[in-house]
Amino acid sequence: MTGNATSSAPHGPSVAIIGSGPSGLYAADAIQRKRPDARIDIIDRLPTPFGLVRAGVAPDHQGTKNIVRQFERTLTKDGVRFVGNVSIGRDVSLADLRAAYDAVILAVGAPLDRSLGLEGEDLDGVYGSAAFVGWYNGHPDFADLAPRLPDGSSPGAVAIIGNGNVALDIARILAKSEAELTSSDLCRHAQDAIAAAPIRDIYLLGRRGPVEASFTSAELAELGHLERARPLVDARALEGADASAVEDPKAQKVKEKNLEILREFAAQPERDAAIRIHVLFHAAPKAITGADGKVTRLTVERTEVQEGRAVGTGETFDLDVATVISAIGYRCATIDGVPVDDRAGVVRNQDGVVDDGLYVVGWAKRGPSGVIPTNRADSMEVAKRVLEQLEGIGETAGRPGPEALDALLAKAGVQVTGFDDWRKIDAAEVARAAEGRPREKFTRIEDMLAALG
Ligand code: NAP
In a 3-state reduction of DSSP, which class is residue 250? Predict the structure, then answer.
């Protein structure tokens, strides 16, 4: 395996971090800074690092992805290794890892879509945002999704459920012209499918009102600067909308800015646009119906917000759509030996502590909220607890860590990828990108491994 050398001489504590996204990498950095003698293995089931920075952040938000420069510095620090293409539960058990390392940190995110709980959710043409975003961002789990988009024989409309930034990302990617996406790393298969889909209407549905929407302002404003699409907001939906009762002053400012942007959208004069993005509030999905197993209609119920909750009014309307994408949040996956809070969709924990020597960070700890830097402070807090536990290890021998893992993986015959392998995959993706594009991702693990020569 390639990666940074770790010595077998008297050594410091060993830490395994499962997941190489932001929360795991921030935790590694915080531990490494205080304990430069620590041997930290950052394990990922994909051959590539960076979690949601690679497979979640919108392909047209390349600036956000610059954070990987910092993460690469963490991955190349003394004693830190990237251990890719290793799946916990398949290649090595969590119990084995816990026996091998002084501490194990779960940084596994929340990769599963929450369900809408509606009839018709299993129709062809209905997708969760984890699957849909994973598809256009080249996540190997969703390479074969081939989502059903409008095709000329179906309504030229897509409904996106949710009023968060993920819903905005999806609307924008579907609405952007090919020219607007040339500097993105949107995967070619997705670019082609979107370009071929005669999308005319995109419905963005919030079950509560404009004040309750969880958009951030810069992302919302982007909808107003699209080449072939325009946002449509009914001014009546904004009447009486007031953010002054929002308690947190920072959140209040964001909401006020959002209202200002929405009012600008509502006041825009009529203009022709190939795609209309209908921003609808107080609109909760009620039922999805279809024909021949394919979605054709989304029934929506108008709501009122009462004590912060969306309450149905009984009044409904129908949208003829070819595709329904829910962007309503995520839940963590189950791992043998890890307690999960089913309702919250997170790993059961007390301030990041799951059990003796077992910790959790990021979305698996607190749920799918916050932006990338939110994970820094959160992971640093948990790292403090890990560091307390590791005190004293170094003078007294700790667990074997990397040597034990290498032996287990060799026995299981796993083709592990290290950081140098990632560099090769990275270079191959950059080399095969079309002119002007940052990269063309490999979407299959075999292709990533084949790029290693
Ligand atoms: P989110 O901000 O929590 O938004 C989820 C949305 O789904 C909310 O509007 C929620 O409405 C709605 N929802 C939940 N259950 C629903 C149901 N059963 N029916 C209808 N609507 C339902 O989550 P997200 O958009 O997935 O984003 C996750 C995190 O990543 C957020 O912190 C986000 O800011 C961050 N992110 C940031 C960026 C960026 O900075 N550019 C980009 C993408 C994601 P209620 O509010 O009524 O529950």
Answer: helix
Query: How many Å lie between the centroid of ligand 1 and the Cα of residue 292?
Result: 31
**Tokens 């700890």 found at:** 365
To 10 degrees, the CA torsion angle through 222, 224, 229, 232? 120
Q: 189-206 pLDDT, tens per residue? A: 999 999 999 999 999 999
**Can you give the pLDDT at residue 7?**
43
Distance 440 CA to ligand 1 centre (A): 28
Q: Name the pTM for this structure.
A: 0.96
* CA gap 248, 256 in Å, rounded: 12
Amino acid identity of residue 362, one-letter, is G
Angle, helix 22-34 to helix 374-390, in steps of 10 degrees: 40
**Residue 333 contacts by C-beta under 8 Å, 6 or more apart in sequence?**
108, 111, 112
Ligand 1 atom closest to the CA of 328, numbered from 1? 7
The identity of residue 198, as a single letter, is P
Atom 36 in ligand 1: which residue has the minimum CA distance? 165
Residues 6+ apart with CB under 8 A from 363: 23, 109, 110, 330, 332, 346, 369
Question: Which run of H or E residues covers position 303?
Answer: strand 294-306
Query: What are the backbone dihedrals phi and psi of residue 423, each rounded to the nearest 5 degrees, phi first?
Result: -60, -40
What CA–CA distance (Å, rounded) separates 357 from 94?
12
Provide CB contacts within 8 A for 76, sequence distance 6+.
Answer: 4, 419
